[in-house]
Amino acid sequence: MARVYIPVLIQVICVVALAIGMLGLSWWVGVKRPSKEKLAPYECGITPVGDARGSFSISFYLVGMLFILFEVEAVFFYPWAVVFKSLRWPGFFEMLVYIAILFAGYVYIWKKGALDWTR
Question: According to CATH, what is the number of the domain 56-119?
Answer without folding.
Answer: 1.20.58.1610
